[in-house]
Amino acid sequence: MKVEDVMTDDVVTCSTEDDLQIALDAMSDHQLRRIPVVDRDNRIVGIIAQADIATHQPEKTAALVKEISQ
Questions:
Q1: What is the pTM of this model?
Q2: Partners of 35 in the beta sheet?
Q3: How is domain 9-69 classified at the CATH fold level?
Q4: Which terminus of the chain has fewer Cβ atoms in its 10 Å neighbourhood, N or C?
Q5: How far is CA 47 from CA 1, 2, 39, in A?
Q6: What is the per-residue pLDDT across 30-42, written as a single tens digit (0 to 9) for each?
Q7: DSSP result, 6-31
């Protein structure tokens, strides 16, 4: 089996220039635990994971986990 057989085709991303809330909303709306971060050339430069939110914005973690889990 190839990676393309199991990968997600419709990738949801956020931009390095986006406010964090945009990424959190996208994660909630699409029930994602991780979201790729792209630069102005649409190249992946990082990933935001639930663990990153827990580390840097612990007050938002419970709400995010609740939204993603529904």
A1: 0.78
A2: 48
A3: CBS-domain (3.10.580)
A4: N
A5: 25, 23, 12
A6: 999 999 999 999 9
A7: TS-SS---EETTS-HHHHHHHHHHTT
